[in-house]
Amino acid sequence: MIPEAPSGIGQGGRAALTALACAVTSLVIYALFSSGFGRPRPAPVESPVMVGATVAEATLAVVSDDLWLTYLPAGLERSGGGAVEPKGAWARFGSGGRFVEAQVEPAADWAGYARRTALLDARPITVRGRAAVVGRHPDGGRMIVWLERPGTGAWIRVSDSLGGELVAIAASVKSPVGD
User: Fold this and answer.
1) Contact of 89 with 78, CB cutoff 8 Å
2) From CA 169, how far away is CA 167, in angstroms rounded?
3) Cβ contacts of residue 62 below 8 Å, gap of 6+?
4) Which fold is adopted by the domain 55-174?
5) What's the chain's average pLDDT?
6) Could you tell me whether strands 54-56 and 61-64 are parallel, antiparallel, or unpaired per DSSP bridges?
7) Alpha carbon of residue 176 to chain centroid
8) DSSP secondary structure string, the chain?
9) pLDDT of 37-48, one tens digit each?
10) Which of 103, 152, 105 is closest to 130 using CA atoms?
11) pLDDT 10s digits, 95-106
């Protein structure tokens, strides 16, 4: 239905108004689509890693053949590590009074594994979508414990000076897909 125009415009005038309305509508639609309004933003790139307000370079720190860290605070070097029998491994990264310890070990189930770790002020959280427990380690520092996959538990312990980095380090853990 064509809207009524002011008297005296005629069909030519109405056609011009219709063309003008179509052009304005097309311009508005083009502006919305070209602006990116409503378009999903790309996921942030994992390297470099954002930590607080600073940017830290990504680091590859191998704990075992099936568990590694992609973020360690700056200045830490590998200072220890070894095998956990029957299948597992541990690694220590440190410098001065600062340290990060990580371990992957056999664990039958989450309830038994969580009970086995005696953390002070323990509270439940999640790490990369998995149930976890975080708290203070009896020998000092902060520790986070979770079941990486059925049959395999993992934990990370940091010195008190790196307590604020614990969750970022745990979130950087990578392991092979397909288990």
Assistant:
1) no
2) 5
3) 68, 91
4) Protein Transport Mog1p; Chain A (3.40.1000)
5) 81
6) unpaired
7) 17
8) -PPPPPTT-HHHHHHHHHHHHHHHHHHHHHHHHHHTTTPPPPPPPSSSEEETTEEE----EEEETTEEES---TT-EEEEEEE-SSS-EEEEEEETTEEEEEEEEE-S-HHHHHHHS--EEEEEEEETTEEEEEEE-TTSSEEEEEEEETTEEEEEEE-GGGGGGHHHHHHTEE--S--
9) 766 666 554 444
10) 152
11) 888 999 998 888
Cβ-contact 93, 100 below 8 angstroms: yes
C-alpha 61/C-alpha 175 separation (Å) is 12
Query: In the numeric block, which tokens belong to residue 132?
Result: 């976890």
Sign of CA dihedral 59, 63, 68, 69: negative
Residue labelled with tokens 């790490």: 127
β-pair partners for 151: none
The residue extents of the domains of the chain are 8-41, 55-174
- Cα angle at 128 between 122 and 129, to 5 degrees? 85
Note if the pTM is more than 0.90. Answer: no
Torsion angle of the four alpha carbons 145, 157, 148, 165, in this order, in degrees rounded to the nearest 10:
100
